[in-house]
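Q: Could you fold this chain for me?
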Amino acid sequence: MTIFFMDGFGQFVGLGTDTPAHLQDAGYLASGSLTVVAGPESGTHAIQIPVLGTFGRAFTVAGPRLVLGFAYRASERGTIASISGVGNLLWPAEITLLGGSSTAVPIPNLWAYYEIVIDKGAATVEIWHNNRQEIVAPLPAPAVDMTTFSLGFGGPAAPATALISGLYASTVRHGPMAIETDMPAADVDVHWVPTAGSVHYPMVNTRPVSDGTFVQSAQSGAQDLFKFPPRAVLDPIVAVGLVARACKTDLDLRQLGLVVGSQGHQQEVVGGDLNLSYRYQYSVFEQAPSGSAWTQEDLDFEPGGIVVRP
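A: Sure. Below is the predicted structure, expressed as structure tokens.
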């Protein structure tokens, strides 16, 4: 697997003042009046960071290479992002990092896609802007031995309003990425228990999310699989991700598996132990259940869902 994290932020739509708390439950550092707004392309969403708001996430990689990609738009120039152990990506006119400067001069209030390539083997850091390499700078010596890097946005030196969309982390560079978010639209193979009625998908497709509407199960191996709305996308489809918000109500060492495909023909990612309070779990599938690259047909046909583990 090359890409190991991706987020289009659509699951946080409609949360209002609760947005920062939900982002924290999803593993982000988040403060201030963060909101979710429309992203750069149809069907995408963005985190809007106001004055003095902060937003970020830590990423751990075992190998020598880490790539962090995101779409960015801001109302004015300032600090775009900070990378722990590396430095600040600045935007005084051109882009600058560690003494290197870009040829590109980003324009305020226009979207651009940035990719930060940390190569510990080569001891370099690269900055790509809209799929063009703009900066190659020496990686600070302490960063060569680091395995966890934090990517942060906002703060006193940041623009008055900044928007982040299409965030991904990988071991290879994929180029500009649009990440769309869909919610379950139909039941396919359901064995959990809904809080109301007999149809499951309305329990898990509400936005904003509701603590009182969910499906539940304590039976090991029980699955709830859902169909998602058809959506026309442009090739290549780099990956498909599943996100679930889950908790447990007992002290058992219970986990949640996130799956794509029908039973007996699936790929699965099992998250960490569930908590007594709600947390978001993420998974990324670079290949369809067939083992091949995702196609439009796969997106239209293959279900996705959850399974009780162990």
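A (continued): The chain has two domains: 3-170, 186-309.
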